[in-house]
Amino acid sequence: MAKNPYEVLGVKQGASLEEIKRAYRELVKQYHPDKYKDNPLADLAEEKLREINEAYDILTNNSSGASSGAYQGSSGALFAQVRSYINAGNINMAEATLNRISNRSAEWFFLRAVISARRGMHADAVHNARQATSMDPGNTEYQQFFSQLNNSSDFYRDTSRHRGYNNDGCCSDDCCSICATLWCADTLCGCLCGDCC
Amino acid sequence: MFGYVKPCKGELKIKHWNLYRAFYCGVCKALGKRYGQKARLLLNYDLAFLALLIGARKPDYIIKSGTCMVKAKKQHFAYGHAIDLAADINVLLAYFKFKDDWQDEKSIIGLLGNLLYSSGAKKAGRLHKDILKLLEQMQEDEKLVEESNCQSPDIAAIPFTQLMKGLSDYVTDKDQEYSEFFEKLGKWIYLIDALDDLEDDLKKNSYNPFKSQVSLTSVEEIRNDADTIMCLYMQDIVNAFDKLKLEDSDLKMIIENIVLAGLLEKTELVLNKRGWENFGKKSV
């Protein structure tokens, strides 16, 4: 995430070292993992903290952005590992391994989509699957997975219809006004001629 | 985040529509009785639905005829614990929304709401301290989501779904199946609200978890993906609904209508509105 380090720490461009350190300490306190122990947003807070640490390092001219665990060369082996974790049903390990890969290729997005789908996170699954297919349009594995997602969404409309609910646009305002008009006419009829028709 | 959960009128039996109205109007009456006439302005469909859900699980409500002050006509009203609880939660939720709008966007309505309903919210907060805590936690968590510009709609939905789960635990005394239902419904509500607000949020440069999609794909693709996503969540809601043990068969039918037709109708309304033509890869 190539964000402006000054923005991340919330300090002005010419801020002194003391101001930067103070801002850093405040933010670390705010996003400290201990605060998020039982909070499902823990991952998000962790990412924010990583961003904060990176920004602090840049502004205090410490390490030159040495990324953690970016094994570019062996990303192929890591992708294979992610797949075997998924097949074994170990989604947590699959996700942890995937996060270590910094090579955000089509395969990365595809595996991200599969993991999201397993967790029932449909929005992420769909978005990542689409991203994978657009980065590698010829790949039938990614295409099939994306089609599968789209097909399973038809399931809901079928369920609705199967259980007696008409969803072919009957629930539109026009239909309602037609229904209401007919109902009114019928009621009026009932009032006038005693509902014998 | 209000007014999305309602029945598909055209698919309801008239007796069920009348029962639904009795609950909706019942919450209105309860708001007026417990928080003063001005609180009736806060009434919305989602809280009527909450009353329905609570009532369906433990039908200890009664239906009485009375007069509607606003429409000056005789009709039926539902009374009971479910309705009172929905009114209390209504006030708290509305107050927090006003507070949010005032703090984030400096909206005048937000300020007015803040002033008008702060005493009501205090009273409701005293009655339901646990809900107050849930709302405060949600506000804090949503701040994190917005500040990190989270573009994962599923993660962005977490604070709201946590609120819904907490609400469920509170009103059903930790019924697991209800918790699952509330969670899936909460996901749907958060996402449909985000999709509904996308056009405005792009214009005002406000936070929205779907924003990144606009620069990545075409409008047609965003809409198709949104339809897929919402349908997948609605199926989750149906699955969770089928596991609920609902004692009141009439209320159960109304809830079924909402789950199998009402939510779909709303989804199609949001995804087919005119604003979608205004944004996509080419514009912005």
Overview of this structure, please?
The complex is a heterodimer of chains A (197) and B (284). Chain A is mainly α and 197 residues long. Helices cover 66% and strands 0% of the residues of chain A. Chain A has helices at residues 5-9, 17-30, 42-59, 75-87, 91-100, 106-118, 122-135, 140-162, 173-193. Chain A is extended and about 80 Å long. Chain A starts with a helix and ends with a helix. Residues 63-73 of chain A have low confidence and may be disordered. Chain B is mainly α and 284 residues long. Chain B is 70% helix and 5% strand. Chain B is built from eleven helices and two strands. The two termini of chain B are 25 Å apart. The model of chain B has no long low-confidence stretch (mean pLDDT 91). Classes of the chains: A mainly alpha (197), B mainly alpha (284). Chain A binds chain B through residues 31, 39-41, 43-45, 47-48, 51, 116, 120-124, 126-127, 130-131, 134, 149-150, 152-157, 159-160, 163, 165-167, 170-171, 175-176, 179, and chain B through 8-11, 141, 144-145, 147-148, 150, 152-155, 157-159, 162, 191, 213, 216-217, 221, 224-225, 227-229, 231-236, 238, 256-257, 260-261, 264-265.
SSE order and pairing:
The complex is a heterodimer of chains A (197) and B (284).
Chain A (H helix, E strand, L loop, with lengths): L4 H5 L7 H14 L11 H18 L15 H13 L3 H10 L5 H13 L3 H14 L4 H23 L10 H21 L4
Chain B lengths: L13 H22 L9 H13 L4 E7 L4 E7 L1 H25 L2 H20 L1 H19 L5 H4 L1 H15 L3 H29 L6 H6 L2 H24 L6 H23 L13
Antiparallel strand pairs in B: 1-2
Helix pairs in contact in B: 1-2, 1-3, 1-11, 2-3, 2-11, 3-4, 3-5, 4-5, 5-7, 7-8, 8-10, 10-11
Which key phrases capture this entry?
heterodimer, A: 197 residues, mainly alpha, 9 helices, 66% helix, B: 284 residues, two-stranded antiparallel ribbon
